[in-house]
Amino acid sequence: MNHFLSTDDIDSLPEWLKKGAALAQGIGTPDLPGQGKTLCLLFFNNSLRTRLSTQKAARLLGLEVLVMNFGSEGWNLELEDGTIMEAGAAEHIAEAAAVVGQYADLIGVRAFAGLSDRTLDSAEGILNGFVRYAGVPILNMESATGHPLQALADALTIAETSKKISPKVVLSWAPHPRALPQAVSNSFLRIMQRMPVELVITHPPGYELDPNLVGTYKPVYDQKKALAGADYVYVKNWSSVQEYGKVLHRDPGWMMNAEKLGDAGFMHCLPVRRNVVVEDAVLDGPQSLVLKQAANRTISAQLALRHLLNAL
Ligand code: SN0
To answer: What mean pLDDT do residues 212-231 have?
Structure first.
């Protein structure tokens, strides 16, 4: 059974990018591999792009879509085996996932990191619970550790716009008033390591990402140095991994602005805090790629759903 849990479920990235470009241009015979099938999208957290682009993609493939805000409208789920369920949770994920699997042929799950317990987040209890108990293919719509649909849209955006064979891509940390997950940055790093790009990571000390995902890349702590000659600058806040989930500081000097961006394309997954993460002039300027990234979410969702339907 095919799942789409991380970018590792993309067997050949060049192939997927080629198919994505064809989908974006409307090339190929339209088919409806989802006809007669149902996709159920379960949101344990807020969403705009993921929710709408995945529904749009599903409909383009002929799927029926059910959507539920599980986080606010579902029962609290127990994730541990063997618990005496006398406390908060009304339902075990074993039943919940198996039940949804009766109603849907495919299930999408969004369940962010709680950011208080690293081991718990790494275990991906909700996403893996659905994989274990639902009995149908599962689509990761941002989990505790990854956001592969976003990363695939980001890769599509770079492949579509790059004038160079090997562009320089910089992942640059930005300040933020809240503690945010590392999921987007994790998946971006993971997929960029499979692209023909020169990848540079810059953040203040203390914001080192998971070494298993960073690989051999050494962070450049001097943001200006890291940005020199960049073709793409991907700006994102994440909370500390070492001091798990903590905001260590919010130095406004790390905000992206037009001067630092130079001639590079500006990328961000959205939603973005204006004039905290990036100044207005960049978002409103011609170098911003954020809308193209968002448009490519419909393409990445179609690719992932086709993969689940064995129709890629
Ligand atoms: C999420 C994140 O993982 O960073 C979703 C990104 C696609 N972002 C937020 O939760 C932003 C919330 C805020 O208050 O700005």
So the answer is: 97
Identify which of 242, 239, 203, 237 has the alpha carbon closest to the alpha carbon of residue 220. Answer: 203
- Whether the CB of 271 sits within 6 Å of ligand 1: yes
Is the pTM here over 0.90, yes or no?
Answer: yes
**pLDDT (tens digit, 9 = 90+) per residue, 224-268?**
999 999 999 999 999 999 999 999 999 999 999 999 999 999 999
Q: Ligand 1: which atom is nearest the Cα of residue 45?
A: 10
Q: 64-68 and 106-110 as β-strands: parallel, antiparallel, unpaired?
A: unpaired
In the chain, where are the structural domains located? 7-146+297-309, 150-293
Rounded Cα distance, 141 and 128, in Å: 13
How far away, in angstroms, is 106 Cα from ligand 1 center? 25
Predicted local confidence at residue 301, as pLDDT: 98
Identify whether 211 is preceded by a cis peptide bond (ω within 30 of 0).
no
Topology given in CATH for the domain delimited by 150-293: Rossmann fold (3.40.50)
Our mutation pick for probing the ligand 1 site, out of 53, 112, 180, counting the most ligand atoms within 8 A of Cβ, is 180
Please compute the mean of the pLDDT values over residues 175-198 and round it to a whole number. 98
At the top level of CATH, the class of 7-146+297-309 is: alpha beta
CA of 271 to the centre of ligand 1 (A): 6
